[in-house]
Inverse folding.
């Protein structure tokens, strides 16, 4: 350990979002049976946190129509912490009915993106989080609530998003009852310096309740951005197997950080993830087969693990 | 500026190696006229340091047979600092004859790789550097000598390469008369933590004479590795337009860090490069046309610059 690496966490969690952010972004509707197979294999490969779907109306996202069924299966898998995306109170009620471990309410710090995507202002989303918190508390469920602040580094519609506005909304989500918050570079506008600046400020507000970083690889910087956040002690990152998903405004460009590449980077750095990378690569190949014709990303699957890897990780 | 970014350099140089590391790795032999056009356009896009070729026997690398001619043209371009790779004293004599600004002697810290690639042990390469230094001093030329320590993070043949051996060889190169040294992750085995550790140690030995980092993107970590080195104040990085070149042991995998993606990352971080990124993207498209059918890499060319970019960089 050196001065340059002394602040790195010893353990980190790669939260799989391929079944939600990945599958909702592609035209192929993956059958429920394949989703369950994915979940089973992901858990066998050591994944402990998976976003299994989204409780949005099926007419808007038919890819997510089976979320209740997928969540029910996820709850049977020992050791799996299953999260779902909920766009509103109605979705949250479904998450509570399914006893999700975590529900994530997305908020867009970009007003333009918020109105276009969620048809609400960011502050209306904050108010919705308050209602979700009340519903959760009334339900007796232990489902945690995460407020996910998206377009936190800029927006393809609005352009610049003020960090002060991102931080104000993060504070507002916590005040409204979020158990945790996260920051997302929804459109791949972040760079390691802006990640350092924003996460450093966000940590001052949220401390350990700042639970996750979500970086898209649209311009190739996802892993560099993860590195910047790691150096601040952030130890949970969203990623999707084969890097699927992402930004509809940049066709052909990568989506999320690829789970397998991120897992490799972390393990190579000596940061324990509990993940079995060869098993992830095998699962990646199966998933890529299920969504044949859809763009996939990532580099490790081509190059393979370095000859030195076992020694490094051990 | 925050604690997390305070150590970043304000300026950085992206040294173009596409004409050497890139073109020598592909089967297509790019005509000299295209190389000169590439050089002219690269300088117009703000590139100030370019590795223009390699003085190796033409029967070994026909792609590099016109290096003397390309170097002669490069020397006519105002403001361009032109370097060449030289595998031995014979190559160095050609570099001196052509009045190169810099000659780079590659040394493989992996003994297995050194014997396979250079047919010399690393210490024999150190001795060759001593002879090159004597030849340079006798010539009256101002050509600088860089000792490039490759396979510094591991090797596909040998596996592990001991950091202590990398550092010993770096010191030996300096002792033998190298003006500068650089560290290269020839096969894409580095990660941000190993980069931090090795560069931190190397800086203790070489100080400002540690002039450059060379990272391959074989496993997607090139830009994260650059970020780790930037945080130690390293401010020069090799890269190739369209990410061409790279590792013959990982077919299909990315080669070098892509010039245009690296330039974007640096400028987005507020680190001045002097590069005109749209001009680089335009040149990338032309180069990709000249080498049609060869694999190219990088992400920025697909996604384009963020809407916020001009404001960020200004």
């Amino acid at each position: 350990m050196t001065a340059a690496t002394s602040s790195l966490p010893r353990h980190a969690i790669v939260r799989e979002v391929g079944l939600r952010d990945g599958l909702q972004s592609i035209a192929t509707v993956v059958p429920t049976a394949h989703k369950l197979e994915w979940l089973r294999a992901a858990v066998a490969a050591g994944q402990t946190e998976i976003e299994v779907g989204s409780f949005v109306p099926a007419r808007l996202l038919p890819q997510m129509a089976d979320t209740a069924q997928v969540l029910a299966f996820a709850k049977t898998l020992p050791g799996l912490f299953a999260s779902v995306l909920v766009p509103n109170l109605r979705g949250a009620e479904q998450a509570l009915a399914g006893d999700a471990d975590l529900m994530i309410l997305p908020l867009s710090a970009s007003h333009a993106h918020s109105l276009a995507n969620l048809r609400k202002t960011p502050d209306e989303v904050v108010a919705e989080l308050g209602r979700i918190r009340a519903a959760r508390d009334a339900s007796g469920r232990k489902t945690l609530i995460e407020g996910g602040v998206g377009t936190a580094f800029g927006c393809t519609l609005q352009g610049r998003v003020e960090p002060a506005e991102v931080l104000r909304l993060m504070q507002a989500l916590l005040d409204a009852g979020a158990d945790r918050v996260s920051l997302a570079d929804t459109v791949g506008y972040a760079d390691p310096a802006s990640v350092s600046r924003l996460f450093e400020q966000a940590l001052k507000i949220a401390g350990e309740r700042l639970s996750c970083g979500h970086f898209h690889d649209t311009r190739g910087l996802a892993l560099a951005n993860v590195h910047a956040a790691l150096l601040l002690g952030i130890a949970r990152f969203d990623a999707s197997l084969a890097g699927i998903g992402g930004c509809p405004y940049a066709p052909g460009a990568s989506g999320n950080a690829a789970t397998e590449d991120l897992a490799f980077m972390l393990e190579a750095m000596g940061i324990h993830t509990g993940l079995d990378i060869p098993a992830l690569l095998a699962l990646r190949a199966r998933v890529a087969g299920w969504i044949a014709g859809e763009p996939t990303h990532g580099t490790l699957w081509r190059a393979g693990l370095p000859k030195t890897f076992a020694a490094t990780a051990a």
